[in-house]
């Protein structure tokens, strides 16, 4: 590790003296902050993106710096194309400022969850979910892939809900199904540049939302996974770190399912949704 905390990728050869640099969106979320920590621990300098929670982003930055990693921050609304452009421009500026950086990973992790039901969804809701969850990953990749050297990697965050019917969360589920299609299509589109694209499929993962403290909500979530329980963010982060590493150098256009078997559709009929149970919890307070 160098004196200022950044770790150097490779001791000899053409990469000697360079630092792997990763862009992680949604770094203030439960999963995003674990991804930043995992990538920092595997030697990356990180650009941690956040939406609205600047203070949380600063805490994450301090935590990573305390662990000896370099961490930069940017806040941007990814539902707005101007926010996507701002991230791309900031990455370009950081690469100029830090000539030792090699942009080796983009992790499209930010998302808006818990969308309205089929009956309640408005066109504005529909557009907002797709803008944040699908359009932003598309255009972030379009803007950042040209800045990546061969060997770079894009990791998109999908969801188990893309693999079964979720009418209570329909726009979210559809937006994640589109992310998997984006993953396959982009993998072929940029393969000739030597850059890989994959997606991770989490099931319910304890991101720190108060719902995970509710026994009823947790039991409902656990009923989806054939392995039972809910996931820890670190498990999802480990899958991202693997796909972003050279150990996955022959893996592109695919998904890595860390949902505990939630996509096997083995559960019984559901009577509730997370939102209904959260509302019931609120009423009881
Ligand atoms: N947790 C689960 O059970 C689960 C299950 C399956 C898939 N996933 C997927 O895993 C990923 C991370 O989820 P999580 O559980 O860590 O979520 P989370 O804790 O709710 O965090 C969401 C992150 O996305 C950012 N974000 C939301 N809207 C944004 C916007 N308009 N512009 C910019 N950033 C925005 C948030 O930023 P601010 O907070 O700073 O505003 C936050 O950093 C998501 O793609 C999610 O779909 C999660």
Structure characterization notes:
This protein is of the alpha/beta class. The protein has a single domain, classed as Rossmann fold. It has helices at residues 30-41, 54-66, 81-97, 123-144, 170-190, 215-222, 233-243, 274-284; strands spanning 19-24, 45-50, 71-75, 101-108, 153-157, 196-202, 255-258. Strands 3-2-1-4-5-6-7 form a seven-stranded parallel β-sheet, with helices on both faces. Helix 1 crosses helix 7. The longest helix has 22 residues, at 123-144. It is globular and about 55 Å long. Residues 1-14 have low confidence and may be disordered. The structure holds NADP nicotinamide-adenine-dinucleotide phosphate. Residues 26-32, 50-53, 77-79, 109-113, 132, 157, 159, 202, 204-205, 207 line the site of NADP nicotinamide-adenine-dinucleotide phosphate. Residues 20-207 form the Ketoreductase domain. It comes from Leucobacter massiliensis. Belongs to the short-chain dehydrogenases/reductases (SDR) family. One of its GO terms (molecular function) is oxidoreductase activity.
What is the strand tally?
Answer: 7
CATH topology assignment: Rossmann fold
The secondary-structure element order is EHEHEHEHEHEHHEH
User: Which structural class is indicated by helix and strand composition?
Assistant: alpha/beta
How many distinct helices? 8
CATH architecture field: 3-Layer(aba) Sandwich
List the bound ligands. NADP nicotinamide-adenine-dinucleotide phosphate
Poorly predicted sequence stretches spanning 5 or more consecutive residues: 1-14
The number of distinct structural domains comes to 1
Q: Whole-Å distance between the termini? A: 50 Å
Oligomer: single chain
Under CATH at level 1, the class stands as Alpha Beta
> Measured on Cα atoms, how large is the radius of gyration?
19 Å
Which term fits the overall shape?
Answer: globular
* Main β-sheet description: 7 strands, parallel
Query: Strands across the major sheet, in which order?
Result: 3-2-1-4-5-6-7
Averaged pLDDT, please? Answer: 92
Q: What is the helix fraction of residues, given as a range?
A: 40-55%
CATH superfamily: NAD(P)-binding Rossmann-like Domain
Strand content: 5-15%
